[in-house]
Amino acid sequence: MVAGFDRCGITCIHETAVAEVRQQMIADDEAQALADTFKTLADPTRVKMLFALLNRELCVCDLAAVIGASDSAVSHQLRMLRTQRLVKFRREGKIMYYSLNDNHISTLFKQGIEHIGHS
Description:
The protein has helices at 15-24, 28-40, 44-55, 60-67, 71-83, 103-117, and strands spanning 58-59, 87-92, 95-100. By secondary structure, it is mainly alpha-helical. The protein has a 3-stranded antiparallel beta sheet. Strand 2 (87-92) and strand 3 (95-100) form a beta hairpin. Helix 4 (60-67) crosses helix 5. The protein starts with 14 loop residues before the first helix and ends with a helix. The mean pLDDT is 91.
């Protein structure tokens, strides 16, 4: 690799470009929330769980069976996904059914899958 290949050959600041982007820059708290979301998505087990929930609402036991994990492991991961507002649940008697929290999660996931399939 050539040293400095990913850097400019000279130091110069394009003031107009910098000012324009700074004006539109994401706030620190939003950047942290987005980073936290991506950290949550960085686990293959949680990715599989969300992928399963893209298709349909599932109870904890069914979700565990789909991904081949224990109920307690799935329950632990679901707590993390709920904290990040990626999934929601509803109770029907003693059964907890989980689904994606909103369409944004589905869109994010579908675009991610499309991205990794793009050569």
